Amino acid sequence: MMFRAWVLLVALAIAGTVEMPSGDPLETHDGDLAAGKEIDLAWAAQSNVACFPGPNFKYFNGNHQFYTFAQHANHDLYIRATPEAGVDLSVYVLQNAKPDGAQPPNIDLAWRCSKAWKDNPGEPETLKVDGYKGNFNVLIGVTAPNAAKTGKYKLELWEKPGRQW
Questions:
Q1: N vs C: which end of the chain shows fewer Cβ within 10 Å?
Q2: What is the spatial distance between Cα 97 and Cα 111, in angstroms, rounded to a whole number?
Q3: Which residue segment(s) compose the domain that 148 sits in?
């Protein structure tokens, strides 16, 4: 019984951890939440977006900064957002968000939403977004919990060949 509990704890600790690619990132952005703005989060709970439900809004209610990326077919996108000491971040990625440049809260459709948040100030948030047969317009949102308005970070992006779907 004790062994099963230990295995469960290890599995929970590993959940959400992404092994990042070696080598230099394809793109690097230095950001500050102070340059962003607070937005209405109702878009994220819509069934045709399904990014995060209302009870999780508290993890995404700080100022938002947005970045776009063109994800190539059959390439996985790896994202790491590393905050300065004491800053807690949350990150979300919308695949095939509208190509017209619309940003939340003006999003009413997304093919897929991936997100990462942990209560871990000063530690990076990481995501792997699987690639598929087609190219995707990707919108990356960097924000923070607890209505944070400031906080510097570095956003790094890698794109690597993935499974052939």
A1: N
A2: 7
A3: 41-161
Inside any domain, residue 22: no
Give the pTM: 0.87
Q: Is residue 51 part of a domain?
A: yes
Residue 157 lies in a domain: yes
DSSP letters, 64-104, are: BEEEEEEEPTTEEEEEEEEEPTT---EEEEEET--TT---T
Q: What is the pLDDT of residues 131-161, one digit of tens each?
A: 998 899 999 999 999 999 999 999 999 999 9
Which residues contact residue 159 at a Cβ distance below 8 angstroms, ignoring those fewer than 6 apart? 26, 71, 72, 75, 76, 77, 78, 131
In a domain, 79, yes or no: yes
Question: What are the CA-CA distances from residue 153 to residues 1, 74, 91, 117 (Å)?
Answer: 42, 29, 12, 14
Q: Are 99 and 137 in contact (CB under 8 A)?
A: yes
Domain count for the chain: 1
- What is the pLDDT of the chain when averaged over all its residues? 88
Distance linking the first and last C-alpha atoms of the chain:
40
Q: What CATH number did the domain enclosing 155 receive? A: 2.60.120.680
